[in-house]
Write a structure and sequence with these properties.
With 166 residues, the chain is α/β, with parallel strands linked by helices. It folds into 2 domains: 84 residues, Fe-S cluster assembly (FSCA) (GMP Synthetase, Chain A, domain 3); 71 residues, no CATH class. Helices cover 25% and strands 20% of the residues. It has 4 helices and 7 strands. The protein has a 4-stranded mixed sheet. A hairpin with a 5-residue loop joins strand 6 and strand 7. It is elongated and about 55 Å long. It binds zinc ion.
């Protein structure tokens, strides 16, 4: 053997780092924090992932993308394991991912004290990703996907998507 399992796992990470989040293509699935671990035993490859918020349909897409990328690298004996604990939260987003979201025009998650499952809780104050103003309001609780809401900035009048905190 000229390549160790560590080298192979490193190459797999590098490949996974290139897979975009199907919902927000500017950030990758590793920046999102859904890939928990990789294990290559010389024959079988096991990749462990934690699903994001269950309201996000992207999880099946993640799995398909990971599977396709690993098959392209030559890994046929592949197991994608899903672990639910600890549950994924938007706190797992890296600072780089938050900055990328903002530059893409999506407001990154804001920590709130209200229960994210409480549909009647007041929407959080979300700074506008275009001009930075705090004068914004929620125009729709659900954006293009259940994990985003639509906001409008009262200063620059631009609409934007807010990646909900959960
Ligand atoms: Zn604005």
């Amino acid at each position: 053997m000229t390549t160790s399992a560590n080298d192979i796992e490193k190459r797999i990470w590098e490949r996974l780092e290139q897979i975009p989040d199907p919902e927000v293509p500017v950030i990758t699935i590793t920046e999102l924090g859904v890939v928990r671990g990789i294990d290559w035993d010389g024959d079988k490859l096991t990749i462990t992932i934690t699903p994001t918020y269950t309201g996000c349909p992207a999880m099946t897409l993640f799995t398909a993308e990971i599977r396709a990328a690993m098959h392209a690298m030559g890994f046929q004996n592949l197991d994608i394991k899903t672990v639910y604990s600890p549950a994924w939260t938007t706190d797992w987003l890296s600072d780089a991912a938050r900055e990328k979201l903002r530059r893409y025009g999506i407001a990154p998650p804001v920590k709130t004290i209200s229960d994210p499952d409480d549909l009647f809780a007041p929407p959080p104050a979300v700074p506008c990703p275009h001009c930075g103003s705090d004068h914004t309001h929620e125009s729709s609780r659900f954006g293009s996907t259940a994990c985003k809401a639509l906001y409008v900035c009262d200063d620059c009048k631009e609409p934007f998507e807010y990646f909900k905190h959960f």
